[in-house]
Amino acid sequence: MGAVLERYASDVASAMVATLGPRLVGVFLHGSAALGGFDVRRSDVDVLVVAEGRMTAVEKSAAARALSNERLPCPAHGLELSIVTFSAAQNPTAQPAFELHVTTAPEDTKVVDGHEHGGDPDLVLHFAVCRGAGQLIGPGRPASEVFAPVPDDLVLAQLASELRWSAGHAPGEYAVLNACRAWRFAADGALVSKIDGGRWALGRVPGPDGELIRTALNRQRCLPAAELDPRAVRRFVGQALSRLAETPA
């Protein structure tokens, strides 16, 4: 973790200490900042906050103000932060409940009150990554004590859901590398970054698929690279979905 990112993460943790006080269980860095492949030009700073008990409206307002880009400028693409209860982290479901979600990316700035929603399926993978690789920022309990193991069937289902979404909505390099990441999990149960998933898959496919992955890796790193053929991307994602479907939970 670079010094600038480390300082920003520490400031986020301090804001959560000020908001939640002794009810704060921990602030955890996850995503590419924890798994690898973080790039300030395109990566979000992914943070998961765990608290004892549900948040009040006053606490949510205070957290939203403290985490805003005006109050706490993000040194990367943006902050993506969710606050969940310790009970939710200990009892993972297909759509975990959350207290508050804050994003500060310029094109997607929002504050979402979790009490008005049925939950967030994205938290399935966030929980799994935090348990395996989450970095505790500031005071709190270690991730292995905070996050219960996430059942493989929930991880597989969410990986498949993300792949289907990415095929129609995400940039080609995101879809291809996410497919590589899902393939890696189907092969050996490891949750890795998109970059590491692409590197792992690169030596396992010949010809056009290998070139597709190589091009996706270059584009993800903001290196000069050709446009990806949407048909090739959809085909590659389809192959990854088939692998996930064949993987026993």
Structure report:
- This protein has 249 residues and is α+β, with helices and mostly antiparallel strands.
- The chain folds into two domains: 3-148, no CATH class; 153-245, no CATH class.
- It is built from eleven helices and six strands.
- The chain has a six-stranded mixed β-sheet, with helices on both faces.
- Helix 3 links the parallel strand 2 and strand 3 (78-85).
- It is globular and about 55 Å long.
- The model has no long low-confidence stretch (mean pLDDT 95).
Beta content comes to 5-15%
**What is the CA–CA distance across the termini?**
33 Å
Q: What is the chain-wise order of helices and strands? A: HEHEHEHEEHEHHHHHH
In DSSP terms (H or I, runs of 4 or more residues), the helix count works out at 11
Portion of residues within helices? 40-55%
Strand order of the largest sheet: 5-4-3-2-1-6
As for the number of domains, it is 2
What's the SSE blueprint?
Elements: H1 3-20, E1 24-30, H2 32-35, E2 44-51, H3 57-67, E3 78-85, H4 86-90, E4 100-103, E5 110-113, H5 123-133, E6 135-136, H6 143-146, H7 152-169, H8 172-188, H9 194-202, H10 207-220, H11 230-245
Parallel strand pairs: 2-3
Antiparallel strand pairs: 1-2, 1-6, 3-4, 4-5
Helix pairs in contact: 1-3, 7-8, 7-11, 8-9, 8-10, 8-11, 9-10
Short description:
With 249 residues, the protein is an alpha+beta fold. The protein has helices spanning 3-20, 32-35, 57-67, 86-90, 123-133, 143-146, 152-169, 172-188, 194-202, 207-220, 230-245; strands at 24-30, 44-51, 78-85, 100-103, 110-113, 135-136.
Q: Keywords, please?
A:
alpha+beta, six-stranded mixed β-sheet, 249 residues
